Amino acid sequence: MNYKNLIVIAFRALINNKMRAFLTMLGIIIGVASVIAMLAIGAGSKQSIHEEIGQMGSNMIMIQPGNGRFGGVRQSASSMQTLKMTDYESLVRETNYLSKITPSVTSSGQAIKGSNNSPTTIYGVNEQYIDIRGYSVGRGSMFTNQDIRKAAKVCIVGQTVVDNLFPAGEDPLGKTIRFGKIPLKIVGILEAKGYNSMGMDQDDMILAPYTTVQKRILAITYLQGITAAALSEEYTDQAIEEITEILQRNHGIKIGQENDFNVRSQQEMMETMSSVMDMMTILLGCIAGISLVVGGIGIMNIMYVSVTERTREIGLRMSIGAMGRHILMQFLIEAVIISITGGLIGVLAGVGASGLIKLIAGWPVSIQAYSIVLSFVVCTVTGIFFGWYPAKKASELNPIDAIRYE
Question: What distance in Å separates the CA atoms of residue 312 and residue 308, rounded to the nearest whole number?
Fold first, then answer.
């Protein structure tokens, strides 16, 4: 008996029990579809977060005050005043790996225009900030160096602020709003960016000269942070080393002492988010993979039933010369056919489900080629693994006992 005949016999047996074969495949179909869909969601989420971070500037570097001690008591970073204008000026003069740099001070408060108001955040920066963060001025213009030197009462607003303060559609350019008690003239409107993948509204912001926010709103002389951009992404590590050396020298920090500042890059954030999303993707894949195990158990169960039902047939085949290995291969081929056919249908179902998730739920999905290949491999292994034992039992039947079986 050759393998071609074995395959024909296996197909014929499955066709004679169409409904049972389909129900057996159903576990594999659901398992494969679940694995592909879950991995697509995980990969899509990871890709979306990478794109969001990339839009913020993949070469961006953030310098913040670090934890420190004052009077023997450890202070939180938010209460530290370790970053000064002299630090910013030193970085501007001495760094070789930075293309842009801006001081940063922020304040939360109420933006007011007539009877309309909106809670928002004002960022005190220089004109290079929008290039570092990937923003652009859609209408109007950015404030100038002269505005920074004079601590001018001017600002750039995001689209959310415009919508909240000018609900009737009035042109905001040239109009004056108040942030707290400070009047600010709108000289530009940022291009809308919408919400990012972490649910933050990127248009709910006001940009103003850092000197204006320092002197007129916060009444401080120190900086809350410094934001910079490396020449390119590959120079980020060199830029961080350079920044660290300059600030350690400025702050008189000796070797072995704790820094009173923190330097972080977007790459670190991207790597952290990638590791988190990888773990989530693996978790989703494992949960979906349980369906494949359940489907494999279903194959074993049905193959046992099939062996029992066809005991006399097995006896007749063996009595006319069929060897044990032929019976083994016949039932094993049936199990593999069920697995592979279920896998094919499952792939189509998984791709379709991923598309529906993206269309209906709006979630980012990215179907990975490896998930399809992995599904086929797992399907084949599942068919062989769970079909082997019933097939082995069938091949070991005594022909005489099998023929007499009722």
Answer: 9
From 70, 61, 117, 116, select the one nearest 91 (Cα to Cα).
61
Q: Residue 341: in which H helix or E strand, if any?
A: helix 324-356
Under DSSP, the state recorded for 363 is -
C-alpha dist (Å) from residue 253 to 100, 247, 250, 257: 25, 8, 8, 6
User: Residue ranges of the alpha helices (H) in 72-231?
Assistant: 85-94, 129-133, 145-150, 159-165, 210-212
- Enter the tokens of residue 190: 């940022």
Smallest CA-to-CA distance from 282 within 41, 119, 9 is with: 41
Give the pair of three-digit tokens for residue 229: 């951009």
Give the pairing type, strands 206-209 and 176-179: unpaired
* CA 265-93-65 angle, 5° bins: 40
Residue 239 backbone phi and psi in degrees, to 5: -65, -40
- Rounded (5°) CA angle 398-400-406: 100
Convert the pLDDT of each residue in 158-175 to its tens digit: 999 999 999 988 899 999
Per-residue pLDDT of 366-398, as tens digits, reads 887 887 887 778 777 877 777 777 777 777 766
C-alpha triplet 44, 48, 188: angle, nearest 5°: 160
Instruction: Specify the pLDDT at position 280.
Output: 75
Q: How confident is the model at residue 70 (pLDDT cuts 50, 70, 90)?
A: very low
Q: Are 348 and 376 in contact (CB under 8 A)?
A: no
